[in-house]
Amino acid sequence: MKYIWYGVFTIVFSLIILPSIIVFGFNSHKNVSTSTVEVQLVDEGKLIKLTNTPNYENINIFIIGQNKLQKMNLEEYIKGVVAAEMPAEFELEALKAQAVAARTYVLSKEIALGGKGCELHPGADVCTDPQHCQAWESVEDMKKKWGENFDKYYKKISEAVEDTKGLVLIYNDALIVPAYHAISGGKTENSEDVWQNKIPYLRSVVSPGEEEASKYKTVVTVPKEEFISKLKERQPSLKLNSTNLLSQIQDIERTQAGHVKSLTMGNVVFTGKDIKEIFDLNSTNFSFGLQGNNIVITVIGYGHGVGMSQYGANAMAKQGKTFEEILKYYYNGVELIKIEDLFKLQH
Fold first, then answer.
1. Neighbour-count burial for 90-101, b at 16+ CB within 10 Å, e otherwise
2. What is the mean pLDDT of residues 149-158?
3. Are the C-beta atoms of residues 327 and 336 closer than 8 Å to each other?
4. Residue 42: phi, psi to the nearest 5?
5. Closest CA relative to residue 214, chosen from 301, 134, 294, 127
6. b/e code 22-52 from CB counts within 10 Å (16+ = b)
């Protein structure tokens, strides 16, 4: 009888229990290996499922001048951005800093990584409009711009891009939005003074050495009557007359960096951005003067003033600073990392 039970147990174990152990064992292993993780690769971006390395090396660019969407290799695109956004005469370390900022920017916009893409052009990660995304130039554009210096400058920019290949800026393990501009006017802006949102890595810093830029200081002269009429086009209810005009400009509020946040003209409150747009000024860091029958607007800096100053970066490079030192100066608390290492970090 005992042998009969041994036989029954052996048959049951072989036909039912052992196969169950094998099946459940393999299923358990499979569930672990194929599990997905939802991560945020971009600061304030969407959560994406990270099962393997995303296809980030080819990006969709909307080329404004050609009115078309084109897929492009990331690093080749960055060469076109650096050529368009920063003078090729700049120091190599400044060009490297620009390359990293440009690469981080486009990847922070890339839809495949959880970015929002280009809001103006569906399906595009970025466009080539510098007022909306980043400027970009084709090789043909570079040849026309540089002429006989093309080979020298293209080699220099290629070196800046290749030496920083794959490097991006992160804050709290996510790609930052690395704002940059031409000339801060001596001090960069806090993000909330320009875009309302307080971003921890976009803090105001002193930016010396920009004075050599030709557009560091510009002057716009406007006849009094034209000055008033342009303001009334924006605000028809404006009450302002040409007599003692400067005394009617009051309550000028400035940011920490010296840019105009708001001011009162006559009976109307304007923002600094309003005045910049109305009179096509280079920045919101401006002041008014009077010369005969004209209003003289003196403007300091070029651009929004947030993030990295390109002329400031070049000044730092001339002092021997590396591209990493430049980037960490203008972007508070960031780290540099290879994009593929960011994926590993998130895993």
1. bbebbbbbbbbb
2. 98
3. yes
4. -115, 135
5. 301
6. eeeeeeeeeeeeeeeeebbbbbebeebebee
Q: Are 181 and 117 in contact (CB under 8 A)?
A: no
User: Pairing state of beta strands 268-271 and 286-291?
Assistant: unpaired
Q: Tell me 75's DSSP state.
A: H
Residue from 141, 9, 22 nearest 88 by CA: 141
The answer to whether the CB of 50 falls within 8 A of the CB of 347 is yes
What is the pLDDT, as a whole number, of residue 21? 36
pLDDT at 61 over 60: yes
Could you tell me if residue 47 is left (phi over 0), alpha (psi between -120 and 50 degrees) or otherwise beta?
beta
Instruction: State the number of CA atoms in the 13 A half-sphere of 194 facing the CB.
Output: 25
Q: What is the pTM of this model?
A: 0.87
Written as six digits, the tokens of 258 are 């010296």
* Pairwise CA distance, residues 152 & 11, whole Å: 81
Instruction: Answer for the pair 45, 176: CB distance below 8 angstroms, yes or no.
Output: no
Residue where the block lists tokens 């920083």: 164
272-276, 318-322, 334-338, 340-344: segment of lowest average pLDDT: 340-344
Q: Which amino acid is at 98?
A: Q
